[in-house]
Here is the input.
Amino acid sequence: MERKILSNLKTWLYSSERKPLILRGARQVGKTWVVRELAKTEEYDLIEINFERNPEYADWFESNSPTTILELIELNMNKDIQPEKTILFLDEIQAASAVLPKLRWFREEMQSLAVVAAGSLLEFTLENHEFSMPVGRVSYMYMRPMSFVEFLWALDEKKLADYMITARESLEMHESIHKKLLEKFREYTLIGGMPECVNSWAAEHNYSVIAEIQGDLLQSYRDDFNKYKDRLSPEVMRMTMNSAVKQIGCKFVYSEVDTTDSSVNVKKSLNSLALARLLYKTYHTAGNGLPLGADMNEKFFKCIFIDSGLAMNMLGFKCYTEKEFMETVWTNKGAMAEQLVGQLLLTREVPHDAFVYYWQQIGSGSGNGEIDYLIAKDGEVLPIEVKSGASGSMKSLHIFMESKGLSQAVRFDTNMPSLMNVDIKTSQGKPVKYKLLSLPLYMAELL
Here is the structure.
């Protein structure tokens, strides 16, 4: 298995300005694996401490002296630690939140030791901490499920991935390769990017096994809900997650959640799911300029679920034979295409957190206008349209481009890549000219 973030971790490891690193992301996206792989490939000794498995180990970090802490680790683990060639990995650190402030002392007094902290529910600790975080003395990286490029790597299709990357630059592609990439992308839709699922698919190509793994992953997320039961109902969280998946591609409506609870509790549950990084809220923005967040309306948002494969599983999709798998069509093609593009757009800025928005307007007599995604690109607002097939109306895009005075836009669909000059009149009769970059859905992360 190969992950893009590994190259960023190597850069961090050899940086002269290295700080203790906090690796953030949902459960089972590969955080523990990638730290172990970093130590293995770079031939560093790995000291791994899992605070969820061994909460008593937090006692070793009571001192503010890294030297004292290291001595206790050496004695308790019977290891001889050489800081210059060691990675200290503090896994599931949310179970020992008092250790987080100690990271500052490693930055100030023992920079020679590479320190990584990670945790699947770390966002809750960072939001509600009652201690002083070592601001400016730690750095952050974010992990998400595997992207389509990483999926191809795992399937030993590196040549195909390289061809796709080259075609994104040249906009030239052979139709037979385009069809093969669409087929692989259909696999990615169903399998998703959770590492355990991808590894199993690469080894066995058995969807019934994948469905079972996906079910187990989803159950592990639901089991986590019990950890919040002192402030939230696990049942409300379960129903909120189910509803978020059903509402993919639509503005989230609290009343759609099948619960008699108040919208306040549903809102809290949804925010908790976002903190756990099981979903991402993409907010409405007027799109008048950068930063896009300046025109954001927090009352209107859509949800991108963590992973398309898990979403398909939750929607009840099941296929157990090769024939069923090959004959599959998306349950809701438009919504799932939007989910996939959003999911991949969020991976494009590895290892940083990414921000995407959407635009919608109800104009008098002109119907609904909506742009699926807006991002900031090269100092400009870049509108993105998503189509599940090879054709579709672009009325909303024409209106948006004319009203905002923008010069370039992107469309993702099932066509081969192309660049065209649009010169047309909107449905309101106003002239509009702009460049449209049309890319296949599977290229979303390469934007």
